[in-house]
Design goal:
The complex is a heterodimer of chains A (118) and B (396).
Chain A (H helix, E strand, L loop, with lengths): L1 H11 L6 H20 L20 H39 L4 H16 L1
Helix pairs in contact in A: 2-3
Chain B lengths: L2 H24 L22 H15 L1 H12 L3 H21 L4 H22 L22 H17 L3 H20 L12 E2 H18 L4 H14 L1 E2 L4 E2 L2 E2 L5 E3 L3 H11 L4 H15 E4 L2 E4 L17 E2 L4 E2 H13 L3 H14 L2 E4 L2 E4 L4 H12 L2 H7 L2
Antiparallel strand pairs in B: 1-4, 2-3, 4-5, 6-7, 8-9, 10-11
Helix pairs in contact in B: 2-3, 2-14, 4-5, 4-6, 4-14, 5-6, 6-7, 6-8, 7-8, 8-10, 10-11, 10-12, 12-13, 12-14
Classes of the chains: A mainly alpha (118), B mainly alpha (396).
Amino acid sequence: MKGLFGLLGRLWKAETFSPTAFVLRAIIIIVLYCASELLGLREYTTFLSGTSANVNLGWPVASALGLIHLLLYVAFILLTPIFLITAGLIAAWNRWKGQPDKDAQVGRFQAETRSSWG
Amino acid sequence: MNSTFKTHLKKAGLGLVALALATAMWVPCLHLFFRKPLADFYQEKGVSPKAKQLVARHLHLWTEPRLRQAELKKMRSSNAEWDFMGRSYLVWSLVNMGLREPETKAQYLPIIDQIIQETVKIEQQEGIYAFLMPYAKDRPYMIKPARSLFIDGEIALMMGARRMLQEEPAYKEPMTERLKLIERRWRINPIMAAESYPDECWTFDHAVALAAFKVADRLDGTDHSALCQKWIAIAKEKLVHKATGLLVSSYQVDGTPLDGPEGSTIWMVVHCLQVVDESFARDQYQKARKELGRITLGFGYGVEWPASWQGPRDIDSGAVIPVVEVSAGSSGMAFIAASSFHDWDYLQALATTLDMAGFPSRQDGQLKYCASNQVGDAAILYATVLGPFWQRITKP
């Protein structure tokens, strides 16, 4: 658990345009989209046809839930791959230029230090 | 400018360039993840896998009253018409499926009869308003007694379709009666317009009625070809939007246009006109395809209005995505037209969009599109199986 929080912390502190930051953004989208799927918000996308998924909930709430799922889905199919490709491109560029990702380096150093102490 | 700031700026520039490159790489490839062989959606012979999954869901709805009521309640809270049209599209679909696979007739006929009889019963008990939007009661119909061509035309075509699959004498008289009523109304009006709503005539409903006349001619040996050709001639003269050459979607009893060419209307109109005047229908399809059909980055869709007409969005348009103007209603109906005119590239592109943006949900071999509703799914189902019914009408 500590390792997971450490990883999340590192990801969170990553530089805005580093490969790690783009991977983090992709992970956040995947998690949010999976949560939306598990909560059953997919059903609420029926608002696109002008129909309410749940007449008891009322049109504004039902369509807002549908819109949330729609936006997360668009982010999942569009932004997640784009962010991952971006991360790959920057990492490749850095490697070619001999400038490894600092965030990844710090992570590796911490992991190595922990394992040598542990 | 200090060196730290310069480094940050450089990294930001690199990040943005990489982001732009990644976008340029991914976006054109996206459709490849949703594109399936056309045979998955439509087959010239037999029934496609998608049609089988869609029909399984509809049959489940019609054999589970509780489920059906829940589904209809959702739709009726938005539009009572959809309840009615969902029935029509399902009947027409089942007839096509029965003609494609005669061994399934025995399974479909009881459902078809159940739908027709229940629909007629509701109409008899609650009147035409049971399947119309509330504004139908805001003012009286111009032509008395009040009748809706929307209801009469689709019920007549449902009965005709059922009889085409297997003759049922019980439907002959009521079908003929409805068609006589329509004919009488058309003949007393110089522009052959009958109302669907008070002083509101829809090209969609006239096209459905024309197809029903053709079915009657085939089944009962009547001849309505002069009547149908006269309607086409009047439509060409009075109901064509000059800038696009497309038929307008709605007009008043005296022929004054209300709405211009509308995607959610014209695609179905061209499908019905196919059995009345094939060359006119094809010409209208090609114009509609040019004005309202789009394929962008491998995804097909329909817009509701042509560029030359700024119309209000109505309930049939469904959600319209700004900027690209994608209309759920127009896109759904475009399947029917693309399938009718064997426009395979467009049909495949539409099916790609459906799998991407329709939010398909599969359970126990049943398929529904969450972004759609029962009528939307029934219209899609119809697009996956149409053909044999129309061929029966037109074959020499």
